[in-house]
Design goal:
Keywords: Signal. The protein has one helix at 2-16; strands at residues 26-27, 33-38, 43-50, 54-62, 71-77, 82-89, 91-93, 97-99, 103-111, 118-128. With 145 residues, it is mainly β.
């Protein structure tokens, strides 16, 4: 009887786990462009590390001059929490994100609209800042409502 309960508990734990994105297929260097080619039904995960407090954004550009192929992208933290939900497009930037230092992030990219064998440039633009928040709201008097 207790074996059955243990088995059910293990199965429920496994089914409730989020899809792992931390097994990176490669890395992205900050402020450098990386060119990738998406294969059929391709999905890749790229890791990058923010060394110091700062802001970053990810820009994705279809390098096919006549192409309308799209790439889907979403961003995760090192705990596998989705920070920026999936965005799709031919050329676009993910929203600007502020981060404390010494953090690793994971960019998941997937083939979108007819993206098979299409090349894309990916760039993580990063800038160090002293105050990693967008506004000064650390007290109840300075908080923005």
């Amino acid at each position: 009887m207790w074996c059955g309960a243990l088995l059910i508990c293990c199965v429920l734990t496994f089914l409730g786990m989020p899809k792992e994105v931390r097994a990176a297929d490669g890395t992205l260097n900050l402020n450098e462009t990386k060119n990738i080619t998406i294969e059929e039904f391709g999905k890749r995960v790229y890791a990058f590390r923010v060394p110091n407090t700062g802001n970053f954004t990810v820009t994705i550009k279809n390098t096919n001059p006549t192409g309308n192929e799209e790439l889907d992208a979403s961003l995760y933290d090192s705990n596998n929490n989705e920070i920026i939900p999936e965005v799709s497009g031919v050329t676009y930037s993910l929203p600007n994100y502020s981060s404390k230092g010494n953090r690793t992030y994971y960019l998941k990219v997937e083939d979108g609209y007819y993206a098979w064998r299409t090349s894309f440039d990916i760039k993580v633009s990063y800038k160090t800042t002293k105050n990693w928040e967008a506004e000064d709201n650390n007290t109840s008097k300075t908080a923005q409502y």
